[in-house]
Amino acid sequence: MPPTDRLELLREMMARTRIPLEIHPSDIDRFRAHSRIADLGDLGVQTTRGSSAAIVRTPKLARDDAPPSLVIGLVSEGTSAIRHHGRHSVLRPGDITAYWSIDPYGLTFETDTVRHSFTISLDRLGLPASVLKAQLGSRVGQGSALQAIVSAHLAQLAVLAPRMTPAERRALEQPTIELIRALLASGIDDGRARGPLAETLELRIMTFLETHFDDPALDVAAVAHAHGISERYVQLLLARRNVSMGEWVRMRRLAAAAETLADPAQRLVTISAIAARWGFADHSHFTRSFRAAYGATPRAWREERLGR
User: Fold this and answer.
1) Do 41 and 48 contact (CB within 8 A), yes or no?
2) What gap in Å lies between CA 100 and CA 72, rounded to an integer?
3) What's the DSSP call for residue 139?
């Protein structure tokens, strides 16, 4: 297909998305783009990798009849930039920005930039417009522990969402929206932030554990420090979920070790090295724990799954 035809087809597709947009490639003849889309109920997820280009929500498009929505943008590779609401921000891997459909905006991408977009209606998000306006076009939550947690969650969600079952997507819809609400609310230092932050504290703690379970320094004190609460309160919140932190972390590390043992690409890595990678310094202790959890020694587990 000629480059101009490919571009026209892409423009037609972009005009039919949740938030219609215009695209202007830097080099039409060399332009390439690949996109994956998934829906988690009211939350739209899109991942795009492409050549250098500008994406524009024009004043005319901003007046269309599309439902007023907020987009959370996350860069995982390369560099992007946004102009929106009088702000200009350069986005690098791990950075998050926010923009809404009811005003014009412009995005630019370098070649091979990978960017994830999460779209949700303003009604479903349920945050005051003033909270959102204060952060549109900025790097949201930059440098905060909460931003790091949300960034890691969204990056993993974008990769896995296209192959999730409908039940898995439904299960992740509301928790993801709540994490986004908490991140946006945390950027406002007044009473408007208290509700979303309090409502999502348990969820944010569990997400923190999931993204840091392989950290040898992970303990109750680290969790408390990351969330600005006491160690006793961390333990209370985990108890509400019937979670023992030590046992949860141990089982999560064992699950990661089991997955690594079954990976053909890791077949030459010794079992001791895999145990150490997932926080088990004592090989004998690892073997006993693994057998108790999976009913087989690590060696037998590996051989069965790799067909030896």
Assistant:
1) no
2) 9
3) B
Q: Does 281 lie in the same domain as 194?
A: no
284 three-state secondary structure? helix
> Which amino acid is residue 38, in one-letter code?
A
Domain that holds residue 276: 247-306
- How many domains in the chain? 2
CA distance 243 to 238: 5
Q: What is the crossing angle of helices 283-294 and 245-261, to 10°?
A: 90
Q: How far apart are CA 258 and CA 75, in angstroms?
A: 31
Asked if 82 contacts 97 with a C-beta cutoff of 8 angstroms, the reply is yes
The answer to whether position 224 is within a domain reads no
Q: Which two tokens stand for residue 4?
A: 């101009």
Alpha carbons 190 and 213: distance in angstroms, whole number: 32
- The share of the chain scoring above pLDDT 90, in percent, equals 46
User: Within a 10 A sphere around the Cβ of 106, how many other Cβ atoms?
Assistant: 19
CATH of the domain at 257: 1.10.10
**What is the dihedral angle through the alpha carbons of 187, 192, 198, 201, rounded to the nearest 10 degrees?**
-20
- Bridge-partner residues for 44, per DSSP? 39, 119
- The beta strands (E) that lie in 143-210 are given as none
Give the gyration radius of the chain's Cα atoms.
Answer: 22
Domain assignment present for residue 218? The answer is no
Mean pLDDT, rounded, for 22-34: 80
pTM of the model: 0.67
38 contacts 45 by C-beta, under 8 angstroms:
yes
Q: Return d(Cα 113, Cα 53) in angstroms, integer.
A: 10
State the Cα–Cα distance between residues 189 and 78, nearest whole angstrom. 31
Q: Using the predicted structure, report yes or no on whether residue 190 has a pLDDT greater than 60.
A: no
Whether residues 192 and 257 fall in one domain: no
Where is pLDDT greater, at 127 or 173? Answer: 173
Q: What is the mean pLDDT of residues 21-46?
A: 85
